[in-house]
Amino acid sequence: MMRALWTAGSGMKAQQFNVDVISNNLSNVNTTGYKKERAEFNDLLYQTMERAYVLNDSGKPVNLQVGHGTQVSATVRNFDKGNLDNTGSSLDFAIDGEGFFTILTSDDTIQYTKDGSFKISVSEDGLRKLTTSAGYPVLDDAEQEIVFDTDVDISKLVVTSQGAMSYINSDGETVDLGQSIGMVNFPNKYALEAVGGNLFTKNSAAGEPVQSSEDETGSSKMKQGYLESSNVQVVDEMVKLIIAQRAYEVNSKAIQSSDDMLQIANNLRK
Predict the structure, then answer these.
(1) Is the pTM of this model over 0.90?
(2) Across 28-41, average pLDDT
(3) Where is this region: Disordered (predicted)?
């Protein structure tokens, strides 16, 4: 009965974590470029009381084992594409595919995002940089900051599907800016770590980023004037939330039943 208490308790902890993950998904249903997560679980140590064996054409065909509950093993991010919403802004970008934008954060580290709602930041010396809403510079395919000259009309900015930038001047001519917005792919994007602010950071498991222009698959295309919405489906998350709540409730009833059995055993009289 004591085993039942701890086993059911592990189930309650696991489902509480599951609800935390689902709640985070629901809270980010309107976050640009957000990718939903799911919790994964594995079972804990088993106590083997009798093992299956064969001896002289006879024996026990099955094991006698009892488990000790469950634990959270991982959170897996779903990178399925969200809807592409047409904003009409020349500074809004969405990636149709596996790619990520490259961002330089305040501690001079390069991080990655699916959020292409960029802005123009003007520095004290008058330079105009392409940045995120938080003011972090957006990098080009050479990992350099994207800076616009004063004569560039940002409203006439044109960006190709591979990120190459140009603009239409007052004479109606297309002027190449000589820079391309950086767009990278990862060998294992599922290992990227979310750090908040719609940003991801790479680690050894994710592998080294590859510029989309060098990726032989050509799976990523940039779309100007669009933003990628969150891929969270509210109905699906609500169903998962109900299932997690019921599982939590059943585990709590198992603890209560074990406690009642212990109370009966304690009240036995000779």
Answers:
(1) no
(2) 95
(3) 203-224
